[in-house]
Every structure is written in C-alpha cells, then in structure tokens.
Amino acid sequence: MVSQTTSIHKTAIISDGAKIAEDVEIGPYVVIGENVSIGRGTKIGPHAVIDGVTTIGENCNIFAGAAIGLPPQDLSYKDAPTGVIMGNNCTIREYVTIHRGSKDPMTLLGNNCFLMNYSHVAHDCKVGNNVIMANGTTLGGHVEVGDFTVFGGLVVFHQFVRIGRFNMVSGNSGTRVDLPPFALTDGRPLYVRGINVVGLRRAKIAANVRSAIKEAYRLLYRSDLNMANACARIEEEIEQFDEIKEIVNFIRGSKRGVARGNLGNSYDLSSEEDGRAD
C-alpha cells in the first residue's frame, strides 16, 4: 500500500505488501521488501535496501547504500520472520547496516538516533533514544545501548555488552565488558576515566544529582572497595536519587563484568576540566 503523496523514483523496487505512508521520498534503485512499513515524511536515498519485518518511523533520513533488516550474520539463524524497529527522526548515513533479529524478534533503534557512515548494528541489539554512532562504530549481537550515549569513530563492542545511559565513548577503542551509565570511557580496552558532566548538564540533570553521581563513582573507582562493597556503601551513604539506583542496579546486573578505572593514567574526578559536578 503506497500513499498518493509519496514520491517514488521509477527505478525503485517496492514489493506489493510494503506499506508506504504519506510524504515519503524514495530514491533511485531502492529496494523495499513486502513486510516493510515506512513512516510519514521519511526520505530514502539511492541504492538503499530495507527488508525483513521492518518498521521505519516518521521523518527519518536514510542515505545512499544503507541496508536495514537484512538477515543477521548468525549461523544459527533459520529464516525466522524477524526484523528491525526504528523510531522517529533518525538519520542513517551512507552504508550503515542494521541487521534483523536472530533469536529476539526485533533489532531495536530508538528515536532521534544518528548513525554515521559504515556503522553496524548487529542482530538483536537494543539501541536507545538520542544515540550517536560515529563512523565505523560496530555493535556485536545482543548489545544494549542506553539513551544519550555517544560513540567516537571505529569503536567495537563484543556481543551481549551493555552500555549505560549518557556514556561518552572515546574513538578507536573497544570492550568485552559493560560500560556503566554517566561515564567518560577511554582507552583500549575501555576504562572509566571520569563523569560525563557535559552530557549531564545538557540534559539538565540537577547539580545535587550530579554531585551524588560523582561521589558514587569516587567510591566505585577511587576507593579500595570492590564493586559489591562499593555498591553497598553507595546505598548507605548517598541520597538515593533515581540515577544513583540506576548505577547500582546496572553494576549488580552485569553478567560480563564492568569496566575498570585506569588508576595509572586517570582523570581526577574532582577536577574542573572533566569531573566537576556543579
């Protein structure tokens, strides 16, 4: 079903079952599968391919050569009817690949995400809202990414890794373990280097909450406590804002372990440049 107000180039191939909403623009040589739904106002550039049981939200901008909803790179996949769900207002640049689910029904991408050239989101990933992935960012299967996370270019994540909200990840890096929320992470492998104060301020997180986050990370990464004891101290000594509970629950819920602090070459959590909470 194609809306009458949609613009489709004559070389595009649109399967009969595809649902194309109003004011969609589809460029030359685009291929859209029969189980695909495209939301209102979305633009799809030349040679893009969208397949699987895939839903693209409204006002997305998908550039040339992007491939969304193709089968996963998973030897156990047996042609299950899976796909991708993409939110609204996403920008998908040239040659990005987002694979359909393998064991979970859907790979998920939230609203207002910006995926730069050659980024890859593997099967069964769950990417939150307002996430930015710079060129060449690669997420292995089943990776979970929290809202407002920003990835530098050429970073690689092992399958099943979790990245907490408001994480700022340095480029040319990678990890096999989880990255906690509200952190600056850098190095290879990635270490926790400080608090993402700029991101928290932009999100209008209150100063007293930012100070509590800083104190929580001081106990986690600047004390002699192990993670379990540090979490217990955080619950005893720090006011239990939702963000503090989020940090503790994230760490206790980790199955792969949590990134360490690089004490040999670390930023000062209390310094004005990167750790000041006020």
Distance between termini?
A: 53 Å
Structural class: alpha/beta
Let me know the largest β-sheet.
Answer: 11 strands, mixed
Q: What is the helix content?
A: 10-25%
Total strand count, please? 28
In the CATH hierarchy, the third-tier topology of the largest domain is known as: UDP N-Acetylglucosamine Acyltransferase, domain 1
Strand order of the largest sheet: 1-4-7-10-13-16-19-22-25-27-28
Please identify, by name, the CATH architecture of the largest domain. 3 Solenoid
Q: Count of helices? A: 4
How would you sum up this structure, described in words?
The protein is of the alpha/beta class. The chain has two domains: 7-160, Hexapeptide repeat proteins (UDP N-Acetylglucosamine Acyltransferase, domain 1, 3 Solenoid), CATH 2.160.10.10; 200-265, Udp N-acetylglucosamine O-acyltransferase, C-terminal domain (Udp N-acetylglucosamine O-acyltransferase, Domain 2), CATH 1.20.1180. It has helices at 197-202, 207-221, 227-237, 242-252; strands spanning 7-8, 13-14, 19-20, 25-26, 31-32, 37-38, 43-44, 49-50, 55-56, 61-62, 67-70, 83-86, 91-92, 97-99, 106-109, 114-115, 120-121, 126-127, 132-133, 138-139, 144-145, 150-151, 156-157, 162-163, 168-169, 174-175, 183-186, 191-195.
Care to give the gist of this entry?
Helix content is 15%, strand content 24%.
Write the layout of secondary structure elements.
Layout: E1 7-8, E2 13-14, E3 19-20, E4 25-26, E5 31-32, E6 37-38, E7 43-44, E8 49-50, E9 55-56, E10 61-62, E11 67-70, E12 83-86, E13 91-92, E14 97-99, E15 106-109, E16 114-115, E17 120-121, E18 126-127, E19 132-133, E20 138-139, E21 144-145, E22 150-151, E23 156-157, E24 162-163, E25 168-169, E26 174-175, E27 183-186, E28 191-195, H1 197-202, H2 207-221, H3 227-237, H4 242-252
Parallel strand pairs: 1-4, 2-5, 3-6, 4-7, 5-8, 6-9, 7-10, 8-11, 9-12, 10-13, 11-14, 12-15, 13-16, 14-17, 15-18, 16-19, 17-20, 18-21, 19-22, 20-23, 21-24, 22-25, 23-26, 25-27
Antiparallel strand pairs: 27-28
